[in-house]
Write a structure and sequence with these properties.
Bound molecules: S-adenosylmethionine
Strand order of the largest sheet: 3-2-1-4-5-7-6
Oligomer: single chain
CATH superfamily of the largest domain: Vaccinia Virus protein VP39
Structural class: alpha/beta
Number of helices: 12
Number of strands: 7
Order of helices and strands: HHHHHHEHEHEHEHHEHEE
CATH architecture of the largest domain: 3-Layer(aba) Sandwich
Radius of gyration: 18 Å
CATH topology of the largest domain: Rossmann fold
Distance between the termini: 39 Å
CATH class of the largest domain: Alpha Beta
Helix content: 40-55%
Number of domains: 2
Shape: globular
Amino acid sequence: MDKNLIKKIKEKREFSELPDSIVEKVARLAKEDVKVARALLRKYFGVFLTNRVLKGKIFNDEMLTAHMSSRKRDYEKFYEEIFSDVHDVGSIIDFGAGVNGFSYSYLKKRFGNVDYIAVEAVDQLVEHMNDYFKKEDFSANAVCVDLFDVESVFKILKKQKKSRVVFMFQVIDALENLERDFSKKFILGISKECERIVLSLPTESLGGRKKFAVRRKWILDFLVKNFIIKKDFVMNGERGIIIEKKTNS
Ligand SMILES: C[S@@+](CC[C@H](N)C(=O)[O-])C[C@H]1O[C@@H](n2cnc3c(N)ncnc32)[C@H](O)[C@@H]1O
């Protein structure tokens, strides 16, 4: 694809820091139409971000309430559901983290200085999280990586301490929008390198429209078929599913 097209799309400041690989994927979906590509990027990557988040003038966990995906979460309770049966975690790898790194203090309360790494495509968010981690001297790090760059994802994952817990909160739709069925391949692949995956799905769309449940069935069928479902819970407009490998896989 013409590199100038990618450059042109990224002239808009809000997209300037996205990895080229993502912009290229979206440009292809948009049949190389700049306007359509930007509209799709806005829909897939921008809609969750408020100005307060992008500007990054918030230096504490209030950031969590400024981001569309995390704003309704009660992190104390959310992590209690996720970790109630887990006492020993080497590292937490957060794929498509958004601003979730700002919840590190809740993890620290549970596990002390547990290693945390946020993998996120929007570099502004990566920078805000890294500023925060540095300021608080947390054992945490954020990196700007495209989850479709599977090689880099595996490199990152393999470097983390065992036992590894992977978060994929509200990222399935983002992956599926760009490549159908990619999330299945992704989950099967990473499951070989981690002990536990925690997925979440919004129980209603941003616009509050229906036909959502139907669209969800394929992922649930896939998870039930390939994994042990350790827990399946609903909390504050979000469905959390904890999966582990089947012992013979
Ligand atoms: C709906 S938000 C969820 C954020 C966070 N996980 C949460 O639940 O609070 C989806 C996030 O995934 C990120 N994302 C989407 N596609 C991605 C990709 N291909 N690589 C890395 N991050 C991606 C988006 O930038 C966005 O921050």
